[in-house]
Write a structure and sequence with these properties.
By secondary structure, this protein is of the alpha+beta class. The protein contains 9 helices and 34 strands. The chain has a domain at 563-658. Helix content is 23%, strand content 30%. The mean pLDDT is 90.
Length: 660
């Protein structure tokens, strides 16, 4: 054989090998192999302690007509999305600097976040837990268990916390598919009644038996619960007795899978990682708990797949659900269209009924809870794609539709200030400004919480909860593969409301499909439901995300609590300054501003002892600050001159804190 022939054979072999390797690496299996071999660790970015924000309220806020405890803004989360409007808006401040404190009850899968009583105790309902429990209460210092409500359910959503107007005591309400229970904060039962729906049998439980939680109907002092199969139950709050002869049934059908189909092999691996977080109730050999949650996340395979909202101004109930199958012209048993149902609870004589007043149709399902503006004039909902719709609550017509840059994957956050709306799109949080008859994109959030390792990107985990001093969210770092986000690590962050930049970030969070909630003390909490991190481990191996996935509840605690005092007082100062410019033209808005200022001042006073114990604020400095706060409380009144004086006093206190 000639020398040239000897040379060409290895060359051909090399070309064939190179081509085969290149082809292999363009396949899904090849890409996964390369990531497993070459991925390296991501690290959290270092953040300095945050300075005060430049964000301020401008002009007249959107104002509710009612002003009792469950009317104006609630001081802490009473439902999964803070209040009955599902606004995800807090009037107080979030701790601007924080660190992971604890993760409690790690064997509980919690896809719907916790709520709080006035003392900061935590309440949540797990899904398919390894114990026979419906509701769990833990204390805030160490996350230790206080008590449980035993029983079987397909998940009871988020409890509702109500402050009784007569006794002033908090009452905890929880609704499952077949039970409605009221409890005192010590776990003692006030009543435990059947819901009117069929009693659950363990082996027959499916996603349609899931309760998305209770909410409050102010006009009739009633509690309403919505189920995955489209049933609504309505009970008298004080007695638990049903106000309807039979539970109401929404008219839709199940929606088909439109967004994502999960490989069986991946699901099998993932469910093994998940196994210690669920028990045997409702679990057959074919049951796929992670798949069920994934479909709910994308608004699929049920009639209802998210929470609902009740307008405290009018009592109108808003539920995003599917339409009947025949509406799509393809009678295949699946609904291809979703709708926003506007319904009233009506009393005629001695009989109550649910009456559908509006049906606003849109393509596909939705993973968005309807969010109502503070004045009740507009309700916002996202479809299963990338459109945000603003619906006039009187006419049922769209005031506008906004095309977001990407799929809207979670519920909306609606502020009463500056027309601000915050939407969770696939990888980021965006700000949208409602200008009345149209909407425009504001900012796109900075998501760089981590310095990403090879092949990895930062992307949104949970978001957004808006408060007086920023927007809370979680940020993940990991692999984005088409429509799938596979996180390796997560942390909690606080965005500036004016710029969308990160004010602070700390790692240590767990993955979740729930929502962020803020406690009475300004701490950050959320329920852990780590299905995406479990899928990351199933896809790329446990070594890419070595910390064992955990359920339960995560708490991030304040550090440098003097900065929480500063942020709360700075927000109060800016609120007072703005209120001074509008109080003459809109007394109602001015009074609500004053109510929020008082909430911020009370938060500051409650935070003082913690700042002293941390060693970041001296007793003498705190005495000076507290004296000024009390002076402001005494001066605060709905007049221009009083509000200007209060604003100036608070600005002086903020300067004092920053010079410590």
């Amino acid at each position: 054989m000639s020398y040239s022939k000897k040379l060409i054979l290895p060359l051909i072999a090399f070309v064939v090998f190179f081509a085969a390797t290149g082809y292999y690496l363009t396949t899904k299996r090849g890409k996964i192999l390369i990531v497993r071999m070459l991925v390296n660790e991501s690290f959290v970015r270092k953040f300095d302690l945050p300075k005060r924000t430049d964000w301020k309220p401008e002009g007249v806020r959107t104002t509710a007509k009612v002003s009792e405890t469950h009317g104006w803004q609630t001081t802490y989360a009473r439902t999964i999305h803070t209040d009955t409007h599902s606004s995800d808006e807090m009037p107080t401040a979030i701790t601007p600097a924080f660190e992971l404190d604890w993760i409690a009850e790690p064997t509980m899968f919690v896809p719907e976040g916790p709520v709080f009583d006035s003392d900061g105790n935590i309440y949540f309902s797990p899904v398919f837990p390894p114990e026979n429990v419906i509701l769990v209460s833990i204390e805030p210092e160490k996350g230790e268990r206080r008590w449980v409500l035993e029983g079987l359910s397909g998940g009871a959503g988020t409890p509702f916390v109500y402050t009784d107007p007569v006794s002033g005591k908090d009452i905890i309400y929880v609704g499952t598919y077949d039970r409605n229970v009221a409890l005192n904060t010590d776990g003692s039962i006030i009543y435990d009644r059947l819901s009117g729906l069929p009693k659950l049998i363990a082996e027959d439980i499916y996603g349609g038996n899931h309760s998305y939680g209770m909410s409050y109907h102010l006009q009739h002092d009633a509690l309403i619960t919505v189920m995955g199969d489209g049933h609504l139950t309505v009970v008298d709050r004080e007695t638990g007795v049903s106000l309807l002869k039979n539970p109401f049934q929404l008219p839709g059908d199940k929606t088909a899978v439109t967004n994502i189909k999960l490989p069986k092999e991946m699901l099998a691996k993932a469910n093994k990682d998940f196994a210690y977080m669920y028990g045997s109730s409702g679990v057959s050999k074919d049951f796929d708990p992670l798949g069920e949650v994934f479909h709910a996340l994308f608004g699929e395979l049920q009639q209802v797949t998210n929470f609902f909202s009740i307008d405290k101004n009018t009592g109108r109930i808003w539920v995003a659900a599917s339409l009947p199958d025949e509406e799509d012209g393809n009678p295949d048993g699946w609904s291809e269209f979703g709708a926003l149902y506007g319904m009233d609870l009506v009393l005629e004589g001695e009989e109550y009924s649910i009456q559908i007043k509006h049906v606003i149709k849109f393509d596909g399902g939705t993973s968005s809870t309807p969010a109502i503006s503070a004045d009740g004039k507009r309700v916002y909902v996202a479809d299963a794609f990338n459109h945000l719709h603003a619906v006039n609550t009187t006419t049922g017509k769209r005031d506008w539709s906004f095309e977001a840059p990407d799929l809207i994957t979670g519920s909306l956050t609606v502020s009463s200030d500056n027309g601000e709306i915050y939407a969770n799109i696939r990888n980021k949080v965006i700000q949208i400004i409602d200008h009345g008859d149209y909407a425009m994109l504001g900012w796109t959030a900075e998501m760089e919480g981590f310095v990403p390792g090879r092949f990895q990107r930062n992307f949104k985990g949970l978001g957004a909860e808006v408060a007086a001093n920023g927007v809370a969210l979680t940020i993940a770092v990991g692999i984005i593969a088409g429509n799938q986000k596979l996180p390796f690590k997560l942390g909690a962050g606080l965005l500036d409301r004016k710029t969308g930049k990160l004010r602070y970030f700390a790692d240590g969070a767990e993955d979740s499909v729930s929502s962020i909630v803020i406690s009475p003390g300004g701490e950050i909490y959320f329920g852990n439901s780590p299905l995406r991190r479990i899928f990351a481990r199933a896809t790329f191996g446990n070594s890419v995300s070595p910390v064992k996935p955990m359920g339960g509840i995560t708490k991030f605690k304040p550090i440098h609590s003097e900065l929480l005092i500063r942020d709360a007082l700075w927000a109060a100062a800016n609120r007072a300054a703005n209120a001074a410019t509008i109080v003459k033209q809109n007394l109602s808005a001015g009074k609500q501003d004053i109510a929020q200022i008082n909430q911020l001042l009370a938060q500051s006073i409650a935070t003082g002892p913690r700042a002293i114990s941390e060693g970041n604020l001296s007793q003498s400095k705190w005495l000076s600050i507290e004296t000024k706060i009390h002076q402001t409380q005494e001066l605060l009144a709905p007049s221009e001159s009083a509000l200007i004086k209060c604003s100036k006093i608070l600005e002086e206190v903020v300067d004092l804190i920053e010079n410590i």
